[in-house]
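Problem 12. The chain below contains 225 residues. Write out its predicted structure in token notation.
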Amino acid sequence: MRKLTYLGHSAFFIEKDWHGILIDPFITGNPMANFDYKKKRITHIIVTHAHLDHLGDAIAISKHSGAVIVAVFELANYCMEKGAKAIGVNIGGKLKFDWGTVRFLPAVHSSSNPDLPYGGLAASVLFDIEGTTIYHAGDTSLMSDFSLIGEIYNPYYALLPVGGYYTMDIEEAAIAAKMLFAMEIIPIHYNTFPNIKADIHKFSDLIESQGQKCLPLKVNEYVEL
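Solution.
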């Protein structure tokens, strides 16, 4: 079975065959998360940027499991300095793995943490798993790049931040969804903390009015890919 499980905030776990791929694994300190990585087979960790609510437990998980972190060059180097396994890429880079491909694409956001003043560029990430395309927007504002990403890659699933304050809000995320031409939209980066509280029912109505499907997943809920 291939499935995409929501872990809360912006974190996801993709399972395909014997592979386990974590995305932005903010587990420790995440009031929404209920995920024991020590009981899972994890082979790869994809990190969109260096902020601690996205880098999260990536280094600890890599050191425990041997999973490879894939991140923008500067962030990957930081992870390696901390003892993790990592591959450094940059915006536009595409990597091929046994389970599929991952391409790093633009996001409009900052990228740093207290130990790493500059973490390289923030990224969004496009996955292709046997023809199923999943676009994780990371943290970003509304940007014109969504139109190009939609035109060229036409992702089936779009995982979009909707909480406002640090990212685009529900109205802007609905515009982004339309620009991406995605069939199913999964909202992320909302309701974890008070300043990113969002009316997800309103967002769902906006998405449905555009002829797209909204999937506001609960923590540990999954979709089959």
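Discussion. The CA atoms of residues 5 and 82 lie 28 Å apart. Students who got a different answer should revisit the alignment rule from Section 12.3.
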